[in-house]
Queue: 2 jobs
Job 1
Amino acid sequence: MKHYDKVKEIIAGKAELCVVTKRHSVEEIMPFYEAGERIFGENHVQDLTAKARVMPDDIQWQMIGHLQTNKVRQLAPYAARIQSLDSLKLAKEINKECARINKVMPCFAEFHLALEDENKTGLAAAEAVEFIRACREYPYVKIEGIMAMGPHTEDEAEIRRIFEQGHELFLSLQKEFGADQIRYLSMGMSDDYPIAVDCGSNMVRIGTYLFTEDGE
Ligand SMILES: *Cc1c(COP(=O)(O)O)cnc(C)c1O
């Protein structure tokens, strides 16, 4: 796990690692568990619940993909956090389903910061305060941070510009709601995590890079 060691070195003391296990088998994932990782991310409800059922109980499964309201009931018992909260309709459904099982669900509000992502999922930075304020009316939804993706480009300056926007949004929300409430800035994937960490991310979500070795 050469890339794993490299990632751990780069994020040391700065960011937590969410190992993105999508498309990988339990057998492939277990070495990361054995190395001490407990935060694993999946982007489909079916895959998350299937893995959660057979893997150790102390894994904190993160839902990181777009979540449909009709899948919330199935997901709620298994997710330790929903990083992809992108609408009030979804917050309302999470609140309803988590009330049924008496579980307060930690969530990140997901933002689209890159312009090219305009028609993708995620909230706009301009609606952040209003959105989080509205979510706080739901007792079973606990917003504890934000999630954002970098732009699909190899232009480092552009990636940095977007991640800096994410960090500014994070700081402004901490100012508004308290740094003890808004604790996480989830930014950075295989191709851009060193830049994200440099820009203040404290949780990176990495899949591809961790599951390949040099030369693959
Ligand atoms: C797949 C995925 C990742 C990880 O992407 P890699 O490029 O494989 O590291 C991170 N975040 C989200 C939301 C994803 O869907």
Job 2
Amino acid sequence: MPRHFDTTFDVVKELKPSYPVYCLRPNILRETAQRFVEMFPGDVLYAVKCNPHPEVMRYLHEGGVRHFDTASPEEIALVRRQFPGMKAYFMHPVKSRDAIRNAHRVFGIDHYVIDTVEELEKIREETEGDKKLVIHVRLATPPAGATYNLSAKFGARPMVAAELLKKVDEYGYEAGLCFHVGSQCTTPNGYRIAVELIRQVVDFSGVQVRHIDVGGGFPGQYMNQRGASLEEFMDEIKDCIRWLDMPDTTFMCEPGRALVSSGVSLITQVHLRKEDTLFINDGVYGSLSETVTGQLRYPVRPLRINGEFNQEETLDFTIYGPTCDNMDVLPAAVSLPADIREGDWIEFGHIGAYSNALATHFNGFFPEMQVTVGEAFPFVDGEFPYVA
Ligand SMILES: *Cc1c(COP(=O)(O)O)cnc(C)c1O
């Protein structure tokens, strides 16, 4: 169990960490999971890739998450090791034959995704004639509001999806349809457009579709991207489900980011200041890789234990990470107190999604220290009150 502190200020006062520290908020992770599970009219699958840390998954499970969206044998094993009775789903449209055999034989996985007939044949061949499988056909969706669109890589076009459904049905499997609007989708409209496509595909195929999976993509709150509220997303989705009018169908979703982003912050330390440039101990090869496209900016707050910052004057700083690569720099300048100096700390908020999951060991730097913290990262009335 990680050590517990009331505040992140207590963390820096006590540990004076020269290494990056992930501050997990068990309460926020539990409450977010609970809210999601209560509001979504169906099964909530946590997308494990977003943050596979066992402590994070534990709090989500305590908040009521009982299903896990996985994409590799390693992720399936991770879920089963930690939660032996929980259900994992193999939701990757392109799987190796070994992975399919392993998932089916060793773990008894019964939900799979395809977007081609070739993948369907692979599953049929590697699952020893087992008919008790649910095969989801992944539908490509038009780009609508998502910061990271994935439909170029995965998903069948509507006519192809309808043909695949027929084939799934003909082979005697239960049929499902799924889509993923892309990550950090800031408006609910993308889900409506996708559900309208679902309707057409269902009607055209004439197949009884037992499962509809609306994927992930629900947004986190960042400096430059607030996104609609979870209530707005859920209202839209409930409305879509009423409109579909498919009472014998189970609905599913696969949130990653929205479940974990606000539940973790990261404390970093300034190791050198060179005029308006700061060198800190984490960067784009570690926890901060999601900043590289310039599309997401985390809220920050400066922390100092021996004295106060001069809050009057701020300065825009270029922030470099610890590796020797000159690409290891945040793409946007960060506004911080003008008197920030070596030894101060900078806390990055809302960093639970795609941070530790993407960290490398490049140059010998690897962020791995974890603590739990009681206080939330400050976010009041839709605003981050700190200098940033
Ligand atoms: C990554 C992924 C998710 C989770 O996406 P978030 O944007 O983190 O909610 C869900 N489903 C699929 C298929 C994914 O690839």
